[in-house]
Amino acid sequence: MSYQIKRVTILGSGVMGSGIAAHLANAGIPSYILDIVPRELTDDEKKAGLALKDPRVRNRLALAGMEHIRKSMPALIYSQRDISYITPGNMEDDLDCIGKSDWIIEVVTERLDIKKKVFEQVDRYRKQGSIVSSNTSGIKLKDMADGRSRDFQENFMITHFFNPVRYMKLLEFIVGKDTKPEMVDFMKEFAEDVLGKGVVFGKDTPNFIANRVGVFSMLDTMKVMVDDGYGIDEVDAIVGKPMGRPGSAAFGTGDLVGLDTLYHVSNNVYENTPNDEKRDVFKVPAFVEKMVKQGWIGDKSGQGFYKKIKDEKGRKKLVLDYNTMEYRDTQKYAYDSLGMAKNAEMPDDKMRALVSGDDRAAKFAWKVTKDTLVYAANRVPEIADDIVNVDNAMKWGFNWALGPFETWDAIGLSGSVERMEKEGVKVPENVRKVLDKGYGRFYLDIKGDKYYFDFDSGTYRPVRKRDNAISLESLKKRGMVMKENGSARLIDIGDGVLCVEFNSKMNAIDDDIIAMLNSGMDMLDSRRDVAGMVVANEGETFSAGANIFLVLVASQNKDWKSLEKAK
User: Fold this and answer.
1) CATH of 472-565, one of 3.30.420.270, 3.30.70.3450, 3.40.50.2000, 3.30.300.220
2) N or C: which end of the chain has fewer CB within 10 A?
3) Residue 442: is its pLDDT beyond 70?
4) How far apart are CA 79 and CA 85, in angstroms?
């Protein structure tokens, strides 16, 4: 059968449910958002004289989800007008919406018994061939699908979005043995082309790919910190931008996600992976358990690993001393290895500079890096069939500049393995294969195409490319650069279209970029085989704007002609 998605029903209107509804609206797709019916009136509803049967009461939770969309910062929706794509309702009066929908997404409480009751209702009301998915972060697909109709099971999968849905690229797919391949193919194309997501395929294992590896990395970081006597802010100074990770680093990210969520995810792995060789790492440290019990769960509670206060000098940020459970002023940390990593421009160079040092920061970075690399290698094929899905999950779900296997290539596989073995680390057999049967790298570039080492076959296989996606990096390696200078390139991207790519520092616009833009415009005017031009790049920042320093220098020198040209 052919699939289409013209209307969606979302069951659950919390942070994730409302976020998914908002992103569907961004794509112009109408949705119903349903939640449970409240059994008691709030004080405000009593004052307004409302009754329990009033739609405003019965749809209260879904309406609250829509209000969350309206007020969210950063905005979950492109335009406030697009909220009209979302229709609120409840799971008693509006179950017929399920039958009107092509895709039904479950986003209710993370309890199997509740999900099974919801899916029983879905199976009763859905139309044949409609797609059903769960946004669970760790409950097994086979357990949720147990007892459902054949058509339900054939069209059922897990679609695990990451929060905030509009901004996080990752979408994890988990499919069952009965899931129709043609439905999965359709959903993958829809997720990539319509929703703008990066899809990875995981296995039906606890917490799938990104949270399994990412939470291990966070908890291992805590363990090494406590064992070796580092401070929370000291660790974040090391494992953030110097390692190609977000500025929120480990503990800032923990506060953003919420320690209650972190606790739930880690406990799920601990309880359900008895054979994991690093299972004990998923047992949260005593100080984190104490924080959760006290309600210090991060940004949503006003304090977690960090706390913001106001004093006579204004706002300031405090950090938790986990030994005393009291907050102190944050500190600045200066280590040679951090300076070298900061000065390096590319993520590969940053990682090499950091882990090859011998100071306090470098030693910590090496310990947590080697632990994560080995753990990730041991998880293939347990959580994913190949290294590409693992690397993409960590880049798209945790905003790492490099995935674990890309990191291993960056720091040098042979040398790092030798170093690990000297330190008594058991290197996975999968990794030894790359050294014995491969070229000592997990990835190869061959004539502009990227290949990855497949553990199963012991050979290199091509990394899948989307047919409708253009890789500037690949085109450059194929010799499609028509012209370049110090800050820009003019690339032939096919079909008579040119691309001006920036490559200045932070892609700041300067004289060379202006000159390349003019060159492209000249070609558009003078050549029949040139039909159009786009401006694009694959940098972390599209452009920091004008190079203010050059503007300042030109102004001081009264070089008005240069400034006029740059307009």
Assistant:
1) 3.30.300.220
2) C
3) yes
4) 11
DSSP 494-509: STTEEEEEE-SGGG-B
| Torsion sign, CA atoms 446, 448, 449, 453 | positive
**Residue found by looking up tokens 């990835």 in the block:** 443
Fold (CATH) for 210-420:
N-(1-d-carboxylethyl)-l-norvaline Dehydrogenase; domain 2 (1.10.1040)
What is the residue type of 49? Answer: G
Distance CA 54, CA 38 (A): 11
Q: Count the helices and strands in the chain (H runs, E runs).
A: 25, 18
216-275 pLDDT per residue, tens: 999 999 999 999 999 999 999 999 999 999 999 999 999 999 999 999 999 999 999 999
Cα–Cα dist 94/97, whole Å: 6
Residues 463, 456: Cα–Cα separation, whole Å: 15
Where along the chain do its domains lie?
8-201, 210-420, 472-565
Q: Where are any strands of DSSP class E within 429-560?
A: 443-446, 449-454, 459-462, 481-484, 488-492, 497-502, 532-535
**DSSP state letters, 133-182:** EE--SSS-HHHHHTT--HHHHHTEEEEEE-SSTTT--EEEEEE-TTS-HH
Counted residue by residue, the chain has a size of 567
- Residue-wise pLDDT for 57-116, tens only, equals 999 999 999 999 999 999 999 999 999 999 999 999 999 999 999 999 999 999 999 999
For residue 240, give the nearest of 113, 361, 329 by alpha carbon.
Answer: 361
How confident is the model at residue 478, as a pLDDT?
A: 85
Strand pairing partners for 156? Answer: 132
Measured from the Cβ of residue 373, the count of other Cβ atoms closer than 10 Å reads: 24
Q: Write phi, then psi, for 281 (nearest 5 degrees).
A: -65, -30
Domain 8-201 identical in fold to domain 210-420: no
Q: Could you tell me the fold of the domain covering 8-201?
A: Rossmann fold (3.40.50)
Structure tokens at 50: 């409302």
DSSP 464: P
* DSSP element (H, E) containing 117: helix 112-125
Between CA 243 and CA 369 the distance in angstroms is: 9
Q: What is the number of other CB atoms lying within 10 angstroms of the CB of residue 229?
A: 8
- Whether pTM > 0.85 for this model: the answer is yes
Q: Can you name the residues that pair with 199 across neighbouring β-strands? A: 171
Tokens at 137, concatenated: 């972060």
Q: Are 326 and 305 contacting, i.e. CB atoms less than 8 angstroms apart?
A: no
DSSP character string of 280-327: GGGS--HHHHHHHHHT--BGGGTBSSEEEEEETTEEEEEEEETTTTEE
At what angle are helices 286-294 and 259-272 packed, to 10 degrees?
A: 130
Rounded Cα distance between 493 and 531, Å, is 11
Cβ-in-10-Å burial (0-12, 13-18, 19+) of 272 comes to middle
